[in-house]
Amino acid sequence: MDDKPQTVNLADLRDAALRLLARREHSYKELSRKLKQRGWPEPELESVLSDLAEKGLQSDERFAETFIRSRAQKAYGPVRIRAELGQRGIDRAQIDRALRETDADWLGLASRWYERRYRGTPPADMKDKSRRQQALARRGFDHSIVRDLLD
Q: Do residues 94 and 29 touch, judged by C-beta distance below 8 A?
């Protein structure tokens, strides 16, 4: 067993991070987690990731914007998107700002998803209406949007 400290090639670590970023945007937290899983030591990891963020190669703001656009295209609402961004390490203020700045028409997205899902048929009874409300809520649409669609 070797007790010598293992030297880390920072250029290799930077290249590994850049390869991940070349595929898609990553939050700082996601990138850190993925690189730790691949065996990169934390002190060097923090240094390299901070440098990438300072140079604008990794941006939580850009990640949030891209993520919101992607999820909105899949008809997910702001409540769910907010929760998912939080899980990916984006802070609440940044999430709020990105959601405010998006041009997503949440009511329109919910309406199109609802129409596709239920093909224009009205709820059969209160139980069916409740199921539909729950489905919209699971997709991340808030109560006001659900109410507008179903009332």
A: no
